[in-house]
Every structure is written in C-alpha cells, then in structure tokens.
Structures
1.
Amino acid sequence: MVPKPGDVLHVNRQASVQFGGDRALIFRVIKVSDQPTYYGWIWLTGYVLDRAGRALDRREIYVQEAGLQLADPPPAVVGQPRKPAARTTRRNALRR
C-alpha cells in the first residue's frame, strides 16, 4: 500500500522491527518522500497520534510499504467554541 497525505496508519512490526510490540503507533501521514530508497521501503513524515486523535509528536519514519495498514481514524477532536473577537475601530481606540 502506498500511503498519501491524510492517511492514518497503524505502524507496527510488519512495517519495521523498530515498531514491534508496545512501540507500535498510530501515524497520520503529511508527506511521502520521493527520496530513492531500497525497493519496498519509503520515508514518511507525519504525526504520532494519541487515542483521541491529537498529535503528540512530529516524526519521520522509514518503513516497508507492504507492512503498512490503514487504521480507523481516531474520533475528531472537538474544541470549545471560540468567543468572537472584540472589534476595535480606530475611532474607539483613540478615545481611550
């Protein structure tokens, strides 16, 4: 599988031995490098995600394409609604 930016992957031992066991991670791809590598291997840039889907760390990883698996995307992170910014006109700013 050739990933594309936006894909959420489960990266484990099948992708590279360094991600075996408790070192497996959920990874959101932001860039697939076109740098030449060994056949079947690729460099990916992206974010390690926590269980809630929040980015914990930006990383570049070297993995085997054949070992990559699409992960179920984590639930969307919903924040608090923002308050509208107070509008200040030049006239109001000068009065103060």
2.
Amino acid sequence: NNSESQSRGVVSQKPKPQCWEHGCNGREFSTFSNLLRHQREKSGTAAKSYCPKCGAEFTRTTARNGHLAHEKCSKQRRASEA
C-alpha cells in the first residue's frame, strides 16, 4: 500500500544529482534540471535579465519578477541611464 510506505518514511534509492565544480563539494539537487540551471548560472552562460527600474541583474526571471512585485529596488534609475 502506497500510504503505508509513505508513513514508514521509505524513500527512493536513486541518488540525487550533485555538483563537484566551483567549490560546491557535492552539493545535491532535487532534479537534474536544477543541477543544469545551477551550472549555467555559475559558469556565466545563463541568460541575464535586468530590473527596468533600478538596473539590478538577475539570472532568473522569477527572481526579477519577485523583485519588481515587492518593489525591492534600492534606487530609481536616472533618466540619463534609461
């Protein structure tokens, strides 16, 4: 029964993806795609997005969107920078 195995704490034996580069010392990731995203971000090949208000740089659009939604800008962009 699936509910019985969950209540006993049975977990999958499949190893989690790990990163051994850039000083991560075997950091584990829940999915292979998360490991790939991490490697892109650390290598500098990840696409960057910027806050249109303050110019802050983000490697994840979700982080930029949260920054904008919660009005986290530390400064307003000057007209000369736009």
3.
Amino acid sequence: MRNKDPHTKIYCVHLRTTYTASVPQKPLRKYSNEQFTASSVTVPHSAKESYPQIFYTHQYYISHNAKVTHRAVGCFISIFIGTAVVSITVKLTFRYPSKMAKRKVDTENRGFQTRWESEYMFTKVAGKPVCLLCGESVAVLKEYNLRRHYETKHALFKKAKSQVCDEVCPEKRQLFLNVSLSRNTIAERVDQLSINLKEQLVKKGKDFIAYSLAVDESTDISDIAQLSIFIRGVDSNLSVTEEFLALRPMHGTTTGHDLYEEVSRCVNEMELPWEKLVGLTTDGAPAMCGHRSGLVAKIREKMQEENATGELTAYHCIIHQEALCGKALKMEHVMSIITRTVNFIRAKGLNHRQFKAFLTELETEHGDLPYHTEVRWLSQGKVLQRCFELREEICLFLDSKGKDTTQLRDEMFLCEMAFLCDITSHLNAINLQLQGRDRVISDMYSTVKAFKTKLTLWETQMRKENLSHFPSCQTMKEKLSTSAFPSTQLADKIGMLAADFRRRFADFEAQKSRLELLGNPFAVDVESSPPNLQMELIDLQCNDALRAKYAAVGAAEFARFLPGTMPQLRIQLFTQVSLMNLNKTSHRSRLTAEHLHSILRISSAQSLTPNIDELVEKMGHHQVSPSTSNK
C-alpha cells in the first residue's frame, strides 16, 4: 500500500544518531547487514482526527545478500485501533554495496610530508598529524585539512598586526595590510636575512688577522649527522667576531676525510685564507683527532700545501673533556641501579601517578623524580641528589609494588651513592662555569686548574674522614649503624678522577706559558718568556696606566689597548684571543633539520645585525601578494 502523504516519516535510530527517511523516498544513509528498530511514526493530522485513540508500533528488517546491490525490503507498520489491527506495507528500496565500504583514505596510504611541518606547523605523532601550536590532531591526513586548520585557527599574525597599526599609526593601516605574511613569504624573508648575515661575515672575514674554528658532529633524531661549525676571528684592531658559520647535514659516512671536505668547502665559500687559521676545537672522536686521517691532520696537511707559516693549535672541547672525566670514577654499578629504579617509577603512568601521590601523602620536600638522560650531562647530578633525598620513600614505594629493595637499603651502596651524588654536584658546578660566550681560553684554563687543585684537597680530606665538602657523605656517616664509612676507597676514587683530569688536559699544560700571558701579562715571569717578548713585557709591567686599564676591561678586551710600540705582544695576544672557546652553548643541542640553517644563523648572531634597510632597498617596493592582500 503506497502512502501518499508526504508528511509521514519514519525515524530510525542507528549508532546513537537519528536519521530521517520520508516514505517512500530513499533513506539518507546506506545500510548493510544490520537490524534497526524505528522509534516512532508521525501520523498525519487527518488520521489523528479520525482515530483519536491510536497506538502504534512497528519494526523493519534489512536483509543482506552479498551478490545483490539493490534490494526491496518491506516495512510493516501495525496500527492498533481498539481491538482491530490495520497493517500498512510500504516498500522501501535500499542501495548498499556488496560488503561494508571502507573510507577511501584507509586504502590510499597517505604519508606525512616533511614540508608540512614548516608550512602548516604539523608533525606526525602515533600516525596522526598533530598541530604544534594547539596540540589538536586532524582525522584525515590530507594537505587540505592541515592547511584549513592552520589558516582558520592560527591566522593571528595579520589580525594582531592590524590592531597594533590602528593604535600606533592608523594612517598607515593600508600599508600594513598590504604586507604579505604568507608562509612562503616569511620563509623567503628568513632566507634573505640569513644571506645578508652571511655576506656581512664574508666581508668581515677579509679583515681577519687570525681566526679559529670549532667543529662539532652529532646525530639528530633522523639519524642524519649534523656538522656545526663556528668561527671566532680578530681584526687589526683586535675586535673579536664570534659567529655561527654553517650547519652541514652529512647523509653518508662521517670519516675524517668527509668532515674535512665539508669544513674545506665552508672555508672556501666564506673566502677565508687557510694561512690565517690558528686554532681548531673538536671533540675527541677518531674522525676528528686521528693522527693520520682525522680532521685535524687533514687541515694541517692543507695548511702545509698552502705554505701557511703559522702554527695550528688544536684543542679538545673543554666541557666534553670534563664530562668524560666523570667516567673515570667507575661507579656504573651505582648509576645503573638508580636509573633502573627511576625508569620503573617514571616509565609507566600509573606508577608515576601513584608515586607522586605517595610523596604528597608523606609531605616530603620533593614531589617527584626527574629523568636521567645520558646526553644531558647535568641531569645525572639532579637525579642522584633527588634519589638520595627520597631514598627511604622510594624503598617504601617499591616494597608496596613487590620489588626487591635489598641493594637500595645496603649501607655500603648508600655510601657510594652519597659520594657519587656529591662529586657529581661538584662536576656540574665546573661544567656551568665553563659554559657561555665572551670568554677567553685562559679563563677556562684557570677554572680547570682550580678544580684540579680542589681535587687534591678533597682527596687528602677524605682520607682523614673530613667530609666538609661532601654533605651527603656526612649524612650517611652519621646514620651508619654497623659498618665504618669507606673513606679510603672513596679517596682512591677522587685520586683516579684527578689523574684523569691531568691526562685529558695535558695539551693545555703544554700551552701554559701562552695562556698565562693572555690571562695576566703583568704576572708573567719575564726571564722565562720568549726573547722577542721580554723587552715589551718589561715596558708593559712597568706601565701603571695599562695596568689600570687591564683591571678595568679584563683580558679579552685588554689586547685592543696595547700601543703600537708593542707589536710582538699584540701579535701574541690576538692569536690567543682568536682561539675558539665556544665549546658549549645553546647551539650545541641536537640539531635536527637542514632548513634550520637560516634560523640558526639569525638566532645565534652576536656582533652582526641584518641590514634591513639594504634588503628593503634591493626589493625596491613593498611586495604585495594578491592572494594575501584580499584576505
């Protein structure tokens, strides 16, 4: 029976979503092998007037045949009018595929493109694109969806720009609106700023009397070796320029020859003469320091080919050396237990939450444990200090989890842990002192020399059980119940550390006289100095005005104030000043992508500033993008 009333509708409930189908029209959704129960039937007004006492219920079923793509299904509606039953049969045609359809995107295997990270600020996390700005994920991995999200939810720059213009200079509003802030335009401007800085550095490099390089190679999260190069140069006025030179991704091998090829290409691009290279700082890898095929050896060969008369002074990264000295303690058995304990607590979210709640309940001073990361040299001291202070609470928590805490309760283990905690804090302190810019190598050498003297004092005091500089050890000594504090064994550890410091910094001892001349030329023994410097040193040390100037400006700037009557001393000092000391700055992090080169050059610029006026003049006029100006 065909229902001619267009107002009669069937309301179907499917997966908590209500769909409406007009009888006998086609339903709005394609159905498959499922059963549905309608929730109600809207009866025409005329029927209500004729049958005021009406009750209704109905069901319909959809059967499925895999070989049939169209199937007519009967819908039976039973209307109860008193005791009589009137059945109305309506034929509905359902169109559905032979089997449950899959979304097209499920079979396309779309891949995440790396350019989307810079263009739309998206990255891939657990197979889904996630916005780096707001943290939201997009369901379908399509460029259109990413672009739409970026343009609709993060189009703030242009709005903020116009608002500032309205307040500051409303008459220039249209000029501001005409400035393109599209992704491509911004990327192009960043590249132009980087090129401008590079041109300035090339120009400055032509005035260098001497320069040194610092080279570091590390592997990023994509397993690409990144070679970062820094330069420090001085001109005839002894003005120091210290800048980021280049970032070179190395997709193949990283042998000494490969490193040399990249450094050589960079030096030639910057038009730097090899004969003016006086210093080279590297890490201790064989590819860097190998006697025959390392980077240092290759550069020395190149300088000989160029008939360079100067001497190349090669240094191992001071902070890298200091970090490696900590390995001489040979206390990996202590650190491995601490790391395993921390990982058990921090690796699983449930354990971590329960541990923090446990500390809160006990009202401890600290509310959590930090992670230990091997590449972050300062993290070990923080982890050890926190674990030592929470040692009792950690044992109680592990007991509640059924873990063995025998080693963590052993008194000798706790003594070693306390010692490692204290000595690591001392190593972290010198590590921080060695970091930073605008420091000459003589200052860093003085810091290392002072630490070696401290080690000698600590070894002597430890043998006498004087724990004045080891507070954690002092705490453990007071709590020992049965065993004696192992002062002799720990003093031997300090002696091993001191010996390793002397071995690793032997190259600085070989340059001791030159470093002392730069550090304090007024305290240098004239008689033991080179003959060509003796007369000038006497004149310098007897000049009260220069002595006062040295006290006012420091060693790094003092060389600029030496008079022309002291040429040999000036040459000696500017050579030392040019030695690269940029051994660890924020730029020594794990660099990840080649496109960071321009951003890194701009962000690390110190003595150089992009010439905006020159760039604008080259462009001639403000560039207006039609696609952006109409937005």
4.
Amino acid sequence: MKVLQFTIPVPHDRSIIVERVSLPHHYPYLHRHKEIQLTWIRSGHGTLIVGNNVHDYCAGDVFLIGANLPHVFKSSAEFFDRSSEKKVEALTFFFNPEETLFSLLTMPEMKSSLAFLQQNKNGFKVPNRIADKVIYTMIALDGTSGLDQVIQFVNLMECFLTPGCKYNSLSSQSSLPSIKESEGLRIGKIYNYIMQHYNTAIALEDVADIAYMTPGSFCRYFKKHTGYTFISFLNEVRINEACKKLIAHKFESINHVAYKCGFASITNFNRVFKCLVGITPKNYIDRYNNNIFSINRDNDYENLHKDHLDFPAFNKSRKLMTSVLSK
C-alpha cells in the first residue's frame, strides 16, 4: 500500500473532472493529487484519513479535500466481504484553481471564492446547514459541459460563501513532510494495519515489525510523518469507533464497547474518551438520547441538523491531546 501521487486525466474540453463511483468498496490506497476534491458519499460508511487526522463518514456526508493532501476513504470491513451485496456510491469533482480554473477564479467577481479555497487548504466536511444545497448543486453540475458547467461551478462556490457557516479543518497540517515511495509503502502499511486491528491488542513491536523497524525507530518515524505519536493515532481510531457503537445501542454495556474497540482497561477507556470527546461515555450517551428525545418531541427537523452538528458524536475533527495520551 503506497502513498500514490495521482495524475487526474483532464479532458481538453472540461475544467472540472467528474467521477461516479458504484463499487463494493472505496479505493483502499492512501493517495494524493494536485486537484482539490469534492466528494458526496451517496451510500456507504467507514473511516476517512486525511493528512494526519481520522474521521468517520457515512451516507449524506460531503467532504472537500485540499490539493496534495494524502487521503483515503477506508470502507468498513463488511464492504470487503465477498458474500456481501453492499455497495458504496459517491459523486466526486476534481478541479484545479491554479491551472484550468485560474482565469475564472482570478476575475474580480470570483476573488472571494478564490480566497475561500486558499483559506481552506486543509479541507473540511460541509456543514449540515448547507449540505443539501451543496448536494443539489453537485447534482446539477454533474453531466453539464461548456458554459453550463462554469455556471454551476460558480453556484457551488456561492454555496460555500453562505454567511454564518463554520468550517472545521479535516487535517491539522496542510502539508506533511515529503514522502518517498519507500516511506509511503511503510506508512501505508501502518495505516492499513491499524484500521484492520484496532479492536485487538496491538503491541508496539508488532506494528514496528510491519514497518521493518525497531520500536524506538518506529516511534520517531511515525511522529515525524504524521505529527502524532502512535498511541495518539490509535486511540483516535478506537474512540471514533466507540462513539459510533455507543449511539447505535447494539452493545450490552459501555464496558462491552470498550473491549470491542481494543481497550483492555475500562479505566483507560474512560480516561481517553473524556480526553478526546470532553465528556464521559455515559454522559455522551445521555446527551445524545436527550437530543433525540427533544427533537422527536418537538418534531423540529431543522434543529436535528443543528444538534447533530454541535453534538460531540458528530464532531469528527476531534484534536488529539498527545501530551496526555502518550503517557
């Protein structure tokens, strides 16, 4: 598994490249490309790795991924089951403000859009309050060409400039250290190993062996190329999964969720959970249930989007507190 540098083929008559995906699972390799990527997840769920951060994704989410940011949409395990009939579906646009769209975005009328893209190089998840509008515009843009394509692209940029929208970065670093192919092979294997084994006891020696390093060398290498300690990254993955399981009500107890997500100690699980999410697992469930009860009682679907946006369960860009987690 390599961190691949993609070259997106650009037709001579189009400035925006459209990709429609309907497959058993998303492309599983960590990669990057010089184009900005806008992806609407129509169906499917899993974990998104962007730069040095981890997020979960599900149907209805829309992500903008900045140019040259290493990323991968890692479909959940059930999508790799050959006996499964599940599919992932997505609509993606690729565009390059510095090349094919340069003339358009440097027009005086488009300066706000260009500034917006420059300010959000780390990418973001489209806020719920404008997600439907963005999706509608993406559908309108899909299949267009010529002047119609340009018009719909301008409409798309206008969606992002909606007053009052807050954008949270997908990655805390816009550019990680340059990764050679051999290094990309290593870091890719590490990511893949973590995503496949987060629910088991992962020994430092085991993951170091995957990278063909000693434990000490591996720790320094991982910190250099991701900005975080290995334990911090692993805990982020585990807590993301725990959040989804806790509100799905498919487990008998909080303790059961902790063990299923790879924590051997309930005390450690509670400590890490509160450190990353800001509240205890029990308070997390209670707050979620209270929000849902309030929404059902009032039948206020506008507030449903707002509550989900503000609730920790849906805050998918939680920042790691490495000073605590690495002790």
